[in-house]
Write a structure and sequence with these properties.
Chain A has about 120 residues and is an all-beta fold. Chain A is about 0% helix and about 45% strand. Chain B has no helices and eleven strands. Chain B is globular and about 40 Å long. Classes of the chains: A mainly beta (about 120), B mainly beta (about 110).
Chain lengths: ~120, ~110
């Protein structure tokens, strides 16, 4: 079974520039997550999709971050304009379904490493 | 508010010694707790969950509701156990909340 795919793996941009990350979840997984992991910290949920609808985006800085999952499969996360503090690994993850029947088992991609200079 | 605390950022033990990675949580409901692991140059992956009561790679974790803890234990550490370990809580809003992580190093 193919895992969660993410691209690009690495990106360096200047502050105030924009960047977009792409994610392809595991086939058949209805729930897709974007996490931000700053160096030395645990992953923090930015946004959670169930199919193509947003379930939770309470921690997404909406003035600069946006995410979409138009056809309920692939997703993109965009940052515009980027700030220095956005330097982090952006992890995409997916699970078969939302809720306790999935048991909290989510499958992570390798992450997209962003450095803002 | 839900919170997961891993008090040790770094933990170093010798091969063959017992290992215990601490995890405490705060959650008003009935929690579901997990340990995720990230080996060097690999993606974050599930190690074990409390509802399964399973032992994976020799690791076990018992949920102690009285102490609100979910410590990860292994009686005899192996070098391949060196990794980042994250404790996580699945809350009623269907969100997985992670602790800060503990970097475990097993010395030969």
């Amino acid at each position: 079974e193919a895992g969660v795919a993410q691209s690009p793996r690495y990106k360096i941009i200047e502050k105030r520039q924009s960047v977009a990350f792409w994610c392809n979840p595991i086939s058949g997984h209805a729930t897709l997550y974007w996490y931000q992991q700053i160096l030395g910290q645990g992953p923090k949920l930015l946004i959670q999709f169930q199919n193509n609808g947003v379930v939770d985006d309470s921690q997404l800085p909406k003035d600069r971050f946006s995410a979409e999952r138009l056809k309920g499969v692939d997703s993109t996360l965009k940052i515009q304009p980027a700030k220095l503090e956005d330097s982090a690994v952006y992890l995409c993850a997916s699970s078969f379904n939302q809720g306790r029947s999935s048991g909290g088992t989510i499958y992570f991609g390798e992450g997209s490493w962003l450095t803002v200079v | 508010a839900q919170r997961v605390t891993q008090p040790e950022k770094l933990l170093s033990v010798f091969k063959g010694a017992p290992v215990e990675l601490k995890c405490n949580y705060s959650y008003s409901g009935s929690p579901e707790l997990f340990w995720y692991v990230q080996y060097s140059r690999q993606r974050l992956q599930l190690l074990l969950r409390h509802i399964s009561r399973e032992s994976i790679k020799g690791f076990t974790a018992d949920l102690n509701k009285g102490e609100t803890s979910f410590h990860l234990k292994k009686p005899f550490a192996q070098e391949e156990d060196s990794a980042m370990y994250y404790c996580a809580l699945f809350n009623g809003a269907q969100k997985l909340v992670f602790g800060q992580g503990t970097r475990l190093t097993i010395n030969p």
